Amino acid sequence: xxxxxxxxxxxxxxxxxxxxxxxxxxxxxxxxxxxxxxxxxxxxxxxxxxxxxxxxxxxxxxxxxxxxxxxxxxxxxxxxxxxxxxxxxxxxxxxxxxxxxxxxxxxxxxxxxxxxxxxxxxxxxxxxxxxxxxxxxxxxxxxxxxxxxxxxxxxxxxxxxxxxxxxxxxxxxxxxxxxxxxxxxxxxxxxxxxxxxxxxxxxxxxxxxxxxxxxxxxxxxxxxxxxxxxxxxxxxxxxxxxxxxxxxxxxxxxxxxxxxxxxxxxxxxxxxxxxxxxxxxxxxxxxxxxxxxxxxxxxxxxxxxxxxxxxxxxxxxxxxxxxxxxxxxxxxxxxxxxxxxxxxxxxxxxxxxxxxxxxxxxxxxxxxxxxxxxxxxxxxxxxxxxxxxxxxxxxxxxxxxxxxxxxxxxxxxxxxxxxxxxxxxxxxxxxxxxxxxxxxxxxxxxxxxxxxxxxxxxxxxxxxxxxxxxxxxxxxxxxxxxxxxxxxxxxxxxxxxxxxxxxxxxx
Length: 507
Known about the structure:
A hairpin with a 2-residue loop joins β9 and β10. Residues 1-21 and 491-500 have low confidence and may be disordered. Helix content is 8%, strand content 34%. It contains six helices and 33 strands. It is mainly β.
């Protein structure tokens, strides 16, 4: 009986090991779930934010976080790859590590060639460093592949003389135990080389099947699963933030997609991980609340404003619902007001010019329903130069879960400034959102390389919905909704009627 129980326990442990994710490596392991999923780092390309290059912009750096002075960082690199995804036989590149707090170079520079590179296969990158996984792990005996920081904090690695890094790994370890969820960037640049080069998609035919994790500035973690999404970008940037590609302060404008420009550096705010962020280093945020006044304040000559207070940073979306149907209707009397609340500024009077959505003034004594929502973990995914998203992706809130009864799966977008059509029948205006579980919720496939022969690709000739544009999609990790019904507008303050021009006067 005891022997049978022992065998059953061993079998259970074996199954758990098979089903558990590989936590012994962090790099290619998180980007390429299978050997066929080739995902290279696109390094120091000026068209894609100079990602991970020497003196790259802050948002385009490749970071890792050390939480304890006793931790060691193991490094694994292949030699340089070609754009087609094959290793180069000659040449070398250099890398160095800098400390984020003061920018000092604390490791290197060291050179890597095809001969002394310590990663030569996908299996090497998946196995992790030898001090953690034993004989099957990749070799880090050369001192240039072991960094001992002796100080906790954020560090970033920079490369010179390199454009495509085919295989790589950065594993932070403590006592030879891998500390997963420590590698991140705010603006990744990837290249997915095609396995075949045939019309009609040519070099754009390889799918990106990785899972990314977004850690927002207010401490919410979302899992973004691109597996089988039909996302094909070849060379592309991905960035996450709280507002969208622009930063003008106009929330409705900032979240619009932008044609023919790369704004992902501007959109780089949230940390993006390849594995779930280490909760000991990147803790949960706090679930908040919102209070919206049931009256209007006079806002001087500009009209009115509605007092709003939140307990934590987040986005408030307020609808002045004049037809009372419970939703914002574009092109009607309804008005949509937005405001991003940041730390230290948790109270604000949302301004309204006193005009309805169709331009009409309000009538004396008129009332309106105020429908509002408070969003935390606001996440805008900006992708630059993503030619295809054929099937759509889905998101999952990992932590914290503010209301277990609310399923967060709605994706939103505003592509009205993109001149082409998406090609999949989806509307350009997706502000009302759709469930990411629905087939084709957020998709596009309108791309034309304008060539008759895949051996004659010219990127200057290509056109398409996502081609060389920054497309933005947003969702929320926490939503709190409510309504104030029949709120008086003009009667909330002393008003008078005067003769003369037809103008709205608040005071």
